[in-house]
Design goal:
Length: 336
């Protein structure tokens, strides 16, 4: 028993300083965000991490815990995200909205991959950006990382892009709704279908129309989240086929994505009371905030500069593709 316990305790002791640091920042971001007009705690966390990494000396003692936060806590947060999804609620959106959602995720993902190849951008970074922008932001980046085996620096870069452009989409989508005098259904479809992060959708819908608009936009956004698992499975299948004989192939479905699907099943079957789901939602936000801080700590300004302007342009075009597909669906009368 002692032989087993010692390595476990040793790893825990090594990770504890970085974990506690991540937890402290996550709590601060969750408390400060609402006081700053509903700014996403994830945005605050990744900014705090990047600032800390580039402005002050960081002790090597923190690194094991930060690495654990950036990978394991991020995946745990994705699993808990599944508890916010219920298949009957998604199906209740109607066939028109589901068509928009499916076309947006598939169209934006493959268009981004094509553009990334055209621009000569690293394949792994391209797929991370494609997942984040087409599906559900940082959670999708984490899911795709489990398949493409990208470095933490590339994951952090993709998350930074999706947070930046998703945040810009908040005033952008609100402005479009006001400019065209869109109905609640059309506005909810636009915001839920085109804004990248769930928290960003909540912010934009709250500004544009309050509770009534939230009740339309959030389920549409969550319908995009549901497609995380099949998209990861599709990319993984392609990667396995492309792998050389005898080489290490990625799993068809990472274990945490299986957990994500299981969490959806739990909510769909009504196995947890509303109070437990609310507690899990807070826990999910806390875990993702801690993970975002750790990812931000992996962002080196010099490394981002070395990436150049092409990933930024790719992110801009990916945002434009998502908005165009959703807009076309609304014009075609497929919105909520």
């Amino acid at each position: 028993m002692a032989t087993f316990a010692n390595p476990v305790l040793s790893r825990l002791n090594a990770r504890l300083p970085g974990l506690l640091f991540s937890f402290g920042v996550a709590v601060a971001c969750l408390l400060i965000g609402p006081r700053l007009g509903g700014v996403s705690p994830l945005l605050l966390a990744i900014i705090a991490g990047a600032a800390c990494r580039n402005l002050v000396p960081v002790s090597a003692v923190l690194q094991p815990g930060l690495d654990y936060s950036a990978k394991t806590l991020l995946r745990a947060g994705v699993v808990l995200l599944g508890l916010q999804l219920s298949l009957p609620e998604i199906l209740a959106l109607g066939p028109g909205v589901l068509v928009i959602v499916a076309c947006t995720v598939a169209g934006a993902f493959f268009a981004t991959v094509f553009l990334g190849r055209l621009f000569g951008i690293d394949r792994e970074l391209t797929r991370l950006i494609a997942a984040g922008f087409s599906i559900c932001g940082a959670a999708a980046v984490a899911g795709m990382q489990g398949v493409v085996r990208a470095s933490q620096e590339k994951v952090a870069s993709a998350v930074a892009m999706v947070v930046l452009f998703g945040t810009l989409m908040i005033p952008g989508s609100v402005g479009v709704v006001a400019l065209f005098g869109m109905s609640q259904g059309a506005a909810g479809t636009l915001i839920g279908g085109s804004v990248h992060e769930v928290a960003q959708v909540v912010a934009a819908a709250g500004i544009a129309g309050g509770h009534d608009l939230l009740s339309i936009a959030v389920p549409i956004k969550l319908a995009r989240v549901v497609l995380l698992a099949p998209m990861i499975a599709l990319v993984s299948l392609g990667s396995r086929r492309a792998a050389q004989a005898g080489g290490k192939r990625p799993p068809l479905m990472p274990l945490f994505v299986v957990g994500f699907l299981g969490a959806i099943a739990v909510t769909t079957l009504g196995w947890l009371p509303a109070s437990a789901l609310a507690a899990c939602k807070v826990t999910q936000q806390f875990l993702l905030a801690a993970a975002m801080f750790a990812l931000g700590m992996g962002v080196h300004v010099r490394s981002l500069i070395r990436l150049g302007w092409r990933p930024v342009l790719l992110s801009l075009l990916a945002t434009a593709v998502v908005a165009t597909i959703v807009g076309a669906g609304i014009i075609a009368g497929l919105g909520a």
